[in-house]
Write a structure and sequence with these properties.
It holds the Pfam family Cupin_2. InterPro entries: Bacilysin_H2HPP_isomerase, Cupin_2, RmlC-like_jellyroll, RmlC_Cupin_sf. Strands 1, 2, 3, 4, 5, 6, 7 and 8 form an 8-stranded mixed beta sheet that branches. By secondary structure, this protein is mainly β. It has one domain (about 5-120): Jelly Rolls (Sandwich). About 20% of the residues are buried. The chain has strands at about 20, 25-30, 35-40, 55-70, 75-80, 80-85, 90-105, 115-120.
Amino acid sequence: MNELLYRTAVNWDDIPAIEVRPGVRRKVYSTDQVMLAWHELAVGMTLNPHSHDDFDQLVLILAGRCRYYVDGVPHSLSAGSMLLVPAGSPHYIEPTEGPCVNVDVFTPPRADFLASAWHPA
């Protein structure tokens, strides 16, 4: 556990973004127990249907608009919308007006995102 994470106030603007693939930028903030993943998604990006069996995912849309598909059902979301993606449910996001910016909450943290997580100096 990094004790500095529990004593440091952070602004998303101070965390560098990485380009995951064309049209998708990500910032990750994580402790040992919970992870926040910020995404900026361009309209027309390559869609990425997937699922994860080990954890639920909470989604909060901060800007833009999208269709978020969970178990094949489309949900129209805009700034302020929230959605729960249950563990094991196939899902993906399709930005429709953007960029679409969202924050995902994962607990426990996603192991595949940990390498790109921000850590205080």
